[in-house]
């Protein structure tokens, strides 16, 4: 039995959005009350696709500010960025040698991100799930709050942990770690909205990398930007239904109702009992007010925090120092187990 510990990460790739917030960050905040939490700005993951060095630093600070502005307490818990703790890359190499090529070949995110020109994708993009397994297991974390899109990667992390425990069972026992060195980390796909879709296309998830700025509400958006994006959000000509069944074949309507419900701490039927039968324009106005009320203050606080780069950098340095203590300890144990 492993002591419970939470780990999760967000990539510093710009355009932090409502999906990241409702799918992951809200849950990060909640878990602080019951668990030791480690939240990581995963910059090593960011460079699996091209990044501009002059923008990366700002994005790292932006994600850090978003954690704090949303309510993560960097004194009680740990906030740091991945590249400051070298053991992430070190354990990822070990896991590259544990995971099987066939496992990685099944990863749908790689297929989506690599697109048609797979031969030209980086090796890092392909090995990304092994680095993610290392991020989690370096701290022997037991619980991982994520959005639905990360479910498959979490399953791979569990497979890696299990194979390591089995392959090295004798050495794990001989080194005094009992029957298993790594816990099998559990995904917590429990944010208020675990799969927020694009505002322009109900078949695509809201994403940092979508070229259309109107596809997402960014946490840094001001009231005007939020209002414009919600008003332009794709809908169909029908009025809102009164029952959730009526949302079945209407992905854009379903997504907006889901966003409203998540932001307001309601269920979809509750939202529909207030707005069902009415026109989209009235519902959208209410959604603008709600989103501005909930997201606006976070964006303003992020702006205030990022203006003080020295403060953000001190949070990251302090977090890295505390993360490193755990990481070094566990990596030393892994090396003993491997026979290094
Ligand atoms: P992105 O996928 O936008 O590049 P990340 O990979 O950094 O963002 O993901 C950070 C967290 O946000 C992960 O837990 C991920 O599952 C969650 N997430 C990302 N997009 C969405 C979305 N559209 N809806 C819900 N959760 C999401
Ligand atoms: Na993602």
Structure description:
The chain is mainly alpha-helical and 340 residues long. The protein folds into 2 domains: 222 residues, 3-Layer(aba) Sandwich (Rossmann fold), CATH 3.40.50; 85 residues, Orthogonal Bundle (Tyrosyl-Transfer RNA Synthetase). Helix content is 54%, strand content 6%. The protein contains 14 helices and 5 strands. The strands form 2 sheets. A 3-stranded parallel beta sheet has the order 1-2-3. Helix 4 packs across helix 14, helix 10 packs antiparallel against helix 13 and helix 11 crosses helix 13. It is globular. The two termini are 26 Å apart. The model has no long low-confidence stretch (mean pLDDT 97). The structure holds adenosine-5'-diphosphate (ADP) and sodium ion (NA). The site of adenosine-5'-diphosphate (ADP) has 18 residues, from helix 1.
* Shape verdict: globular
CATH topology of the largest domain: Rossmann fold
Per CATH, the class of the largest domain reads Alpha Beta
Calculate the mean pLDDT score and round it: 97
Question: Number of helical segments?
Answer: 14
N-to-C SSE series?
EHEHHEHHHHEHHEHHHHH
Instruction: Tell me the strand order in the biggest sheet.
Output: 1-2-3
Ligand catalogue: adenosine-5'-diphosphate, sodium ion
Largest sheet: 3 strands, parallel
Q: What are the segments in which pLDDT stays under 50 over at least 5 consecutive residues?
A: none
Secondary structure class reads mainly alpha
User: Which percent range fits the helix content?
Assistant: 40-55%
Count of the separate structural domains: 2
Name the CATH homologous superfamily of the largest domain.
Answer: HUPs
Count all strands and give the number. Answer: 5
* Terminal-residue CA separation: 26 Å
What quaternary form is this? single chain
Beta-strand share of residues: 5-15%
| CATH architecture term of the largest domain | 3-Layer(aba) Sandwich
Radius of gyration from the alpha-carbon trace, in angstroms: 21 Å
GO molecular function: ATP binding; tryptophan-tRNA ligase activity
Subcellular location: Cytoplasm
Motif ('HIGH' region): 12-20
Keywords: Aminoacyl-tRNA synthetase, ATP-binding, Cytoplasm, Ligase, Nucleotide-binding, Protein biosynthesis
């Amino acid at each position: 039995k492993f002591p419970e510990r939470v780990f999760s990460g967000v990539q510093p790739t710009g355009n932090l959005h409502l999906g990241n917030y409702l799918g992951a960050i809200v849950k990060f905040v909640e878990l602080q009350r019951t668990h030791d939490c480690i939240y990581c700005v995963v910059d090593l993951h960011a460079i699996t696709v091209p990044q501009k060095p002059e923008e990366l630093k700002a994005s790292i600070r932006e994600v850090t500010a978003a954690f704090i502005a949303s309510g993560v307490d960097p004194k009680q818990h740990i906030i740091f960025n991945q590249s400051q703790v070298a053991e992430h890359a070190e354990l990822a190499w070990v896991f590259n040698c544990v995971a099987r090529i066939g496992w990685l070949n099944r990863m749908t995110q790689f297929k989506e991100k690599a697109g048609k020109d797979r031969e030209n994708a980086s090796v890092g993009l392909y090995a990304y799930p092994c680095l993610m397994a290392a991020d989690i297991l370096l701290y022997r974390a037991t619980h991982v709050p994520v959005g639905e899109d990360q479910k498959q990667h979490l399953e791979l992390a569990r497979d890696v942990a299990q194979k390591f425990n089995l392959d090295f069972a004798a050495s794990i026992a001989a080194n005094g770690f009992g029957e298993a060195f790594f816990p099998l980390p559990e995904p917590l796909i429990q944010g208020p909205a675990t799969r927020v879709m694009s505002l322009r296309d109900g078949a695509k998830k809201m994403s940092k990398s979508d070229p259309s700025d109107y596809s997402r509400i960014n946490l840094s958006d001001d009231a005007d930007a939020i209002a414009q994006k919600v008003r332009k959000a794709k809908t169909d000509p029908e009025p809102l239904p009164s029952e959730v069944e009526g949302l079945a074949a209407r992905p854009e309507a379903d997504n907006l109702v889901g966003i409203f419900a998540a932001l307001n701490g309601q269920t979809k039927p509750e939202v529909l009992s207030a707005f069902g039968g009415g026109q989209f324009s009235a519902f959208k106005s209410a959604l603008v007010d709600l989103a501005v009320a909930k997201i606006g203050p976070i964006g303003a606080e992020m702006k205030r925090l990022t203006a003080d780069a020295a403060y953000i950098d001190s949070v990251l340095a302090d977090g890295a120092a505390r993360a490193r203590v755990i990481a070094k300890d566990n990596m030393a144990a892994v090396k003993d187990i491997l026979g290094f």
